[in-house]
Amino acid sequence: MNTEPLLKVNDLKVHFYTLRGVVHALERIAFHLNRQETLGLAGETGCGKSVTARSILRLIDPPGRIISGSIIFEGRDILTLDEAKVRQIRGRKISMIMQEPKMSLNPVIRVGEQIAETLLIHDRSLNRRLARQQAVDMLAQLGIADATRIARRYPHELSGGMSQRIMIAMMLVTRPKLLIADEPTSALDVTIQAQILELMQTLVREIQTSVLMITHDLGVMAETCERVAVMYAGDMIEIGSVHNVLKNPQHPYTQGLLQTVPDKANPDQPMYSIRGNVPSLLEPQTNCRFAPRCEYAMERCKQEIPPVYHLNGNHQAACFLHDRSPAVETAS
Fold first, then answer.
1. Which pairing describes strands 38-42 and 21-33: parallel, antiparallel, or unpaired?
2. In terms of Cα–Cα distance, which of 253, 213, 255, 221 is closest to 237?
3. Residues 56/78, Cβ–Cβ less than 8 Å
4. 20 to 30 A from 120, CA-CA: which of 190, 199, 261, 307?
């Protein structure tokens, strides 16, 4: 059995060159994803979660640019491959569910045809009739009643929950090794959200796919993920098992993030918010980016970039509060 991680991201840096200056969108991003594992990527809006996902698929367009780092998928660095080889991976071995399903579906093509087209692009041995049948079968696996009828509908005829099922079918029909789910339930109500997550988990187990789950909903993360990576202002600040990170967070930002979750047992308690604002990413990182908002900040936090400290087990945190622990330059 292959014990090597399916995906390993090392020291990934992405910049966007704008009229206002260089936006340092990602700095020293490093993590790994094991085979048949679900890893959650958490953080506030604008922290770099979606940019990380698009980097894995080599979908950073100008004025953005991947400056340095490596993205090792099945032993090959995606950043060193030519575009033709990347297209063989993208959609076939790595698929991505976008945030807004209806924005990703072609409004003038029936949804069954769109799912079938995904198969035909990546498997030249299939004919259109077989591809259509596999598309209908995938819809049926997603629990869609009368899948044949739904396959003949256009996107505007479907609800938000049904559109999301279509996107999941389109991304999983090729049985990819890695599924990137970018806020897959953000536009859905709670009831439909639970159904979609359950369907995703069932299919992922059946086809033995690894999942990178991008979400700001810590409840979704607790239910679906085995490990969690927390991002702040384009930097990876904490990684560990979902139990350790959510029950015993070791970075002040993660602690603050968890305190913002409403307490159902005490609904009258005032809502907590982290003081201050997210720093401008137009400035290159020269210190801990969370220092201006951190109640534990020391002088060195304002002058140095904290290394990533290995804590108990596989728990890691980029914070000088753990300076007595062995430190490494990057997490892996």
1. unpaired
2. 253
3. yes
4. 199
Q: How does pLDDT run across 299-326, given as a tens digit for each residue? A: 999 999 999 999 987 899 999 999 874 4
DSSP structure string for 219-266: HHHHHH-SEEEEEETTEEEEEEEHHHHHHS--SHHHHHHHHTS--TT-
Domain boundaries, the chain: 7-261
The class that CATH gives domain 7-261 is alpha beta
Distance between CA 21 and CA 31 in Å, rounded? 28
Where are the extended beta strands (E) located within the chain? 7-18, 21-33, 38-42, 64-73, 76-77, 94-97, 178-182, 210-214, 227-232, 235-241, 308-310, 316-317, 327-328
Range from 60-64, 140-144, 322-326 that averages highest in pLDDT: 60-64
Phi-psi domain of 277 (left: phi exceeds 0; alpha: psi -120 through 50; beta: other): beta
